[in-house]
Structures are given as C-alpha cells and as structure tokens.
Protein: Aspartate carbamoyltransferase regulatory chain
Organism: Haloferax elongans ATCC BAA-1513
Amino acid sequence: MTDDHQLRVSKIQNGTVIDHVEAGQALNVLAILGIDGTSGETVSVGMNVPSDRLGRKDIVKVEGRELSQSEVDVLSLIAPAASINIVRDYEVVEKSRVVRPETVSGVVSCPNRNCISNADEPITSGFAVLSDGVRCDYCGAIVREKEIAANLDVS
Ligand code: CTP
Ligand code: ZN
C-alpha cells in the first residue's frame, strides 16, 4: 500500500530499486554495489520502513544504474527476500525476486589467510551457498550472512 502520505523515498526516473531488503542490511547492499557516495550517482536509502510483508524493511534506489546478474547474486546472500525493480522513465519495467545461487565464484573472498585462494596464485574464490552464509570450496571456512559484506572480493 503506497499513497502520497506514506511515500518516504522519492521515485526515481531511471535505475534500480532494491526493495524488501532485510532491515539493517541497506548499508551492506551499498557496500556490495560499491557505492560510497564518491562517484556522483544519486542514491536514496530508506531504513526500517514499515512493510506489509516484512514488518520493517530497507530499500535502496540507485539512479542511472541497472544491476548485473553477479551483483544480484551477491545481494541474494544478504537480502534473500529482496525484489529488484528496473525503472525506466519512472515506470517499473521489470520486477524480479532475487534467487540464491548454489555457488558463487569471484565475489566473496575467503577470510582464512592461509587458504590457497588467498595465495599468490591465479585462483578464483569459490563458495557453496548455505542457508545462512557461504562455505569456501578450498578450505571449508564459513562466512556468515552478516560478515559477507565485509569479505567481498570486488574492489
Ligand atoms: N519505485 C520508484 N520509482 C519509480 C517506480 C517505483 O522508486 N519510478 C519504487 C516504489 O516506490 C516501490 C518499488 O519501486 O518501492 C516497486 O514499485 P511498484 O512495483 O510500483 O510497487 P509495489 O507494487 O508496491 O511493489 P511490490 O509488489 O514489489 O511490493
Ligand atoms: Zn578458503
């Protein structure tokens, strides 16, 4: 249910709305997308916004950017109920729920400093996706959901 009295974050013209983000995860969503405010894109964030479905939710709106599948895959790890809305000319032209992949490669880095994926070798990190985190294919180290944003392989 939205009406003008309830709208807390302005609509966007073109870009992506990441909606139904688990409350408390908005800043991690920004970290995953590499948004720190220095690149000039317009970004709106709502935190602990009332939601029929989730009670409270976070929402992130990024102007002028449509997300890649690998970005959406990582988001699914920290925001499993999120919906991705592509907006063009103020209209939602595409809406999808994130889908948790079975594995992720090249996006999370292993927290184990002795892991072979952290050695000076051309090895791409690989993790199996669990219900509340991911497990390194090489050493079995587990990265919990809340720690994923701090262990990203994207620079
Ligand atoms: N939105 C936006 N800018 C637009 C269009 C939509 O910021 N130009 C936002 C809306 O505020 C909403 C989300 O994108 O948070 C999805 O929009 P819409 O599909 O119109 O809303 P709902 O039907 O309520 O979405 P859902 O069924 O996924 O809850
Ligand atoms: Zn490892």
